[in-house]
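ok so I'm stuck.
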Amino acid sequence: MAKIPLQLQQAAEQIHKDGKAKMVRVKDLLSWFGAQRRGILVVREIRSALKKAKLVTVPDFEVAYIDQRIKLKAPQPDTIKSPVAKEIIIPEQGGADSINAAVVGGSVPDPAPRIGMLEAANTKPVSVKLDTPLTEAITVMALRGFSQLPVMGGERSVDGLISWRSIGNARMQNKTSCELVRDCLESVEIVNFDMHLFDAVRIIAEKDVVLVRDSDNKISGVVTTSDISVQFGTLSEPFLLLSEIENHIRRLIDGKFSLDELKAARNPNDADRKIENVANLTFGEYIRLLDTPKNWERLNYKLDRVECVKRLREVGRIRNDVMHFHPDGISPADLDLLRETRKFLQGL
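replied:
not stuck anymore, here's the structure
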């Protein structure tokens, strides 16, 4: 049974006593468990502790942005499901709102990455109103380096979007009046914060931009193709580093051991798996192979086996989190460790 951290235990006692939810940032909840990122083992530990404390988080702590404030509360019947809504905002001349929402079901939050986990989805958008002078909107876009601005009557009310494209299209159509934002309006798509990230990416690739609606029905952020490029660029480096590290390890091992020795490193729980060469071994099996003193000596490097294997175990831990994709990414310390290990192996 999971151990409940003191902070969570105290929160649970207060919540069950007065029946009121407690607000906490996701990153603070993680810190109670000595963690900075939502790795698979940390998530499992937190879920087990929440269950023991008879608490749930709203929204689910895996779906929420890491710096978002979420509610710790006692579970209520039929409150687990979280609908995923797709909305398309079609602007109408004259300023009238036209919001067509189609709720397409819901499910218990799962470990799948969600659009609401991204920083851009949780950065309050700069917006303009229908009757904002076009010159003012253009100035705001130019000063801030924006390609578009949401047009909103309030934090929950969206009229559409204005962009360099919509302005150009309006002027290209020789509109006689193009002085207000409403004269250059275009439609915009809104996605719920808990939409699967990869589903949202496909929409963003097509539309260039989406607005994100949070659990309180407020527009919480704007996500563009640029944001997605930066996010995936950040997430790709650990994958590339791990791939290179594994290739270096294979190079060190290849041609040094017999087939029987390679088979001896195979996980005993996977004895039926066919081993034909070093490429058939898992990362954990590389470590098992090199952790044997006589095997380490076969490499003929004047290096301490214990320290090197310890480093490989750390890499294996990071690899486990990276392979269970999460928009939180890995910590700066872990990224530095991968970079250092890659550089070390390059020098051998």
